[in-house]
Amino acid sequence: MQGIEFVEGEVRATTHRDGDDLLSAGLGLAGLQGPLSPFADPGHPTAQALRRRAIQTSWKGIADLGPLGGFGSVYGAVPAVPGREYQAFARIPGAHAPHRVLAQVPDNFDQDHRCLVVTASSGSRGIYGAIALAGAWGLPRGCAVAYTDKGTGSGYFDYADDSGVALDGQRATRGSTMLEFEPATAQGAGIAIKHAHSRDNPEADWGRHVLQAAQFGLAMLDRAFPERAPFTPHNTRIIATGLSNGGGAVLQAAGLDEQHMLAGVVALEPNVHTPGHGRALYDYMSEAALWLPCALLDERFASTALARDAHGAPHAAWVARCTSLHALGWLKASTLDAQAREAYEHLRSTGWTDQVMATAAASTALDLWRVIGAAYASAYLRRGADDMPGGYRYAALVGGEPGVADAATRASWWAEASGIPPGNGVGLLGGTDDSADPALRDLTSLRRLWTGDDADARALHASLQALAAHLPRKELPLWVLHGADDGLLPTIFTSEPYVAWLRSEGRRPLYWKLPHAQHFDAFLALPGFGDKHLPLLPYGYAALDRLWAHLFQGEVWPAELSTPAGTARGAGALQAGMLGL
After folding, report:
1. What keyword terms does UniProt attach to this protein (predicted)?
2. Which of 29, 57, 305, 566 would bridge with 528, disulfide CB 3.0–4.6 Å?
């Protein structure tokens, strides 16, 4: 078996057959759609129970499994795929914290068409965070799938009992075994999470995480089929795919792939940073946090889902934001309607379109801009749990107040949490005051990290420069797909400038800017939201099908390809013709 010197500690091998498979942990589509898989002992769930719930939660967080969404009937499937899993902690040289790697090897691995799909979790999710894309497409086809959490994940460390998450997903105390995340500071309070508090700026290494996961996948194929070893990039096609942050990670990997490991890349809605082209996530995220609440009160968004409260009235907090921006002198108008229009025009002038703002109402109503901003600022500044910028901190909540988590809550984090609180009994605290617009003070502080020139601002910009995408090799098949309505990672700031840059440098990426698709397929089950949009996953599966045909069936890779002309779903169920595929 080839060297995997970057792996630390043991490689945990498990088999998954007879009602406990790789793709759904035995739940099948109906089980994935249903309530969360129960724990027999909530305070001490078994590793098998934690895995089942982690897989189910990952599916629910990424795919639209609702009754109108069409998964399993119009596109996609969840067949039982028996096989083996190999899991370990790996480390980038110089990193404080490891990243988790996982290889799934199906029993029906296609020895005649050796295929390894490598992927990275979306958002800040744990190791199964891309299973609905990479696993759902690759495993039934007979491909092995290698995953990385890319230095994020839900292995939260709780200072209250000095515990984190062991390799099998169960809670363990510091010093008893290797943990997914163990803060460098031995004494502290509250909850520490790897993405925000590793002091590594893990985003700068996402491409390296993906390439290590690919190496791990090949080594585990050697272990699974020693009589067919070695598995190498020369005899096994490695396909990289991911969505959101995972999409950005595989594009980073494509630009760092000096050994030509990757045979093709399909990136969905990537968080990709191209300096001098487009805008950095931190820039437009910190801008959105301040300006969108007021801008969305403009009358053109009156019927937009989540842009008004349950009674159809303006959100009181958003009205307060208009007042605050006026008090700061950033808005000149004195009436609410005029202030909202002025805020809207400001965002238009910085690149936001009407449709993107409308879709971003969901992220604004859910307070995602502040939540993401607090965590990412901490990561970029390499802060710990006790010195986050803006006065933020994470703590367990008991009855809505800071407290000590009980054993059941603590045990569920690895399987259920998204990787960035709040949620699952962990709150984002601090960063507010007692004014009518309590978040304003520290949102302006987060914004100054982008616009200012003090030591922290310079450190943040240095971290952002380290995220820059590199050019992939010319002959690499590469396809970027992005929803035209994406309100979290707008195409105008991300995919469009990246693709234009590649083309200006002599590369020939395929690019689909997909009408009616937005960022969160899982949001399509929300009332008044799914009827206006289409899921992105079926287009990703179609692109992967096309790449497979090129790599294994000799189909010519097109120089360009027309974007499907899909139509919004409407009030009824999704129909195949709506996708335009």
Report:
1. Hydrolase
2. 305
- Report the alpha-carbon distance of residue 396 to residue 413 in Å, rounded: 11
Q: Domains, the chain, ranges and CATH?
A: 1-32+39-56+64-152+201-279+473-566+575-581 (3.40.50.1820), 281-392+430-463 (no CATH)
The radius of gyration computed from the CA coordinates of the chain, to the nearest angstrom, equals: 23
Please state the separation of Cα 481 from the chain's center in Å: 15
The H or E element that residue 408 is part of is: helix 407-416
Q: Is the pLDDT of residue 14 over 60?
A: yes
Contacts of 421 (CB under 8 A, 6+ apart): 191, 193, 371, 394, 427, 428
Report d(CA 228, CA 1) in Å as an integer.
Answer: 11
Report the C-alpha gap between 534 and 484 in whole angstroms: 11
CA 516 to chain centre: 20
- Look up residue 99 and give its two tokens: 């990243």
Q: For the sheet containing 163-165, what is the strand order?
A: 171-173, 163-165, 157-158, 191-192
* Coil, helix or strand at residue 11: strand
Whole-angstrom distance, CA of residue 176 vs CA of residue 269: 40
pLDDT at 2: 67
Which one is catalytic: 37, 244, 286, 412?
A: 244
Cα–Cα distance for residue pair 417/155, rounded to 1 Å: 9
Active site residue 244: yes
Q: Buried (b) or exposed (e) across 193-203, using 16+ Cβ within 10 A?
A: bbbbbbbbbbb
Gap between the Cα atoms of 565 and 581, Å rounded:
8
pLDDT digits (tens, 9 = 90+) for 225-267: 999 999 999 999 999 999 999 999 999 999 999 999 999 999 9
- Residue 3: pLDDT band with limits 50, 70, 90: confident
| Residue 499, CA distances (Å) to 64, 163, 279, 368, 505 in order | 28, 44, 14, 27, 10
Of all residues in the chain, the percent with pLDDT exceeding 90 is 96
Residue 11 has a CB neighbour count (10 Å cut-off) of 17
Amino acid at the residue 116: L
- Asked whether the beta carbons of 223 and 88 are under 8 A apart, the reply is no
Scored b (16 or more CB within 10 A) or e, 204-226 reads bbbbbbbbbbbbbbbbbbbbbee
- Report the largest interatomic distance among the alpha carbons of the chain, rounded to a whole angstrom: 76
- Please enumerate in sequence order all residues whose Cβ is within 8 A of that of 387, keeping only pairs 6 or more positions apart, or say none: none
Q: CA dihedral in degrees (247, 251, 252, 257; nearest 10)? A: 130
Helix or strand holding residue 252 (H, E): helix 245-256
Q: Any idea what the Cα angle at residue 239 is, between residues 516 and 249, rounded to 5°? A: 65
User: What pLDDT, on a 0 to 100 scale, did the predictor assign at position 187?
Assistant: 87
| Structure tokens that stand for 578 in this block | 């709506």
pLDDT at 220: 98
Q: Please tell me whether residue 150 adopts helix, strand or coil conformation.
A: coil
Whole-angstrom distance, CA of residue 483 vs CA of residue 495 = 10
Pair of tokens at residue 173: 């105390």
φ/ψ of 12, rounded to 5, equals -90, 120
Between the alpha carbon of residue 236 and those of residues 232, 388, 556, 569, the distances in Å are 6, 44, 19, 39
